[in-house]
Amino acid sequence: TAAGGAQRVRLLLNSAGDVELECHQLVDTPDRHPLLELPPPPAAPKALRIDTCRVSSADPRLRHKSTAREVYAEARRRCGVGQSGVDDVLMQNEAGEVTETSIYNVALLDEDGRWRTPAASCGLLAGTMRAELLERGVLYEGVVSVCEVHAALAAGRQLSVFNSVRGVALAVLVP
Question: Going from the N-terminus, what domains does the chain have, and what CATH number goes with each?
Fold first, then answer.
C-alpha cells in the first residue's frame, strides 16, 4: 500500500516492447490481504445477473489476463452491471456451465460442505487466489451448471466470488 492506501498496479507490455505502468487507487478492499479462507466474512452480497449469451470454452481470450476484455465488457453491458443494483455478470459457456464473473472467480458450496469452483476447461481465467485456494484444499475443481447454482441457492447453500485484489464476498442472483 502507498501512503494513500491500497493500489492496483498494472504493467502493460506492447508488441514493440514498450512498457507502461499504471497505478489505481482501490476503493473496496478487504481489511486483510492474506488469502482468505472460505466462507467469506459477513458483508453485503454481490448481486449477479446471469448472462444468457454464452461464451465458448475454447476462446483463448478467457484464459489469459490481457487488455482484450471485450467479451467481459459486452457481458457487463448486456446485463446492466452498475445499474438496477447489478454488481457483476455470471458467465456461462456453450454447455450451460458457469465459468466466472467479469472480475471474480466463483465457488459454490456443495451439500457436503465443500466449495467447488468451475473447472478451467469450462473456459475461464484461472486467477491467482483460485490457484492458491485449490492448492490449499479450500476449493476443488468441477463442473458447475447454471441450473445447479439456482437449485443450490434455493436450498440455502452459498455462492462466493473472489479474487486476490478484491477479496471474497457472498453472491446472490438477481433477475
Answer: 31-173 (3.20.10.10)
Rg of the chain over all Cα atoms, to the nearest angstrom: 16
Q: Which H or E run contains 129?
A: helix 128-136
**pLDDT for 87-138, tens place per residue?**
999 999 999 999 999 999 999 999 999 999 999 999 999 999 999 999 999 9
Cell 456451465 belongs to: 97
Using the 8-state DSSP alphabet, how is residue 16 labeled? T
Grid coordinates representing 131 are 490457484
Contact between 90 and 21 under an 8 Å Cβ cutoff? The reply is no
Instruction: Please identify which residue in the block is written with the cell numbers 453472491.
Output: 171
- The grid coordinates of residue 157 equal 447453500
Query: 84, 81, 85: which is closest to 69 by C-alpha?
Result: 81
User: How is residue 22 written as a grid cell?
Assistant: 499504471
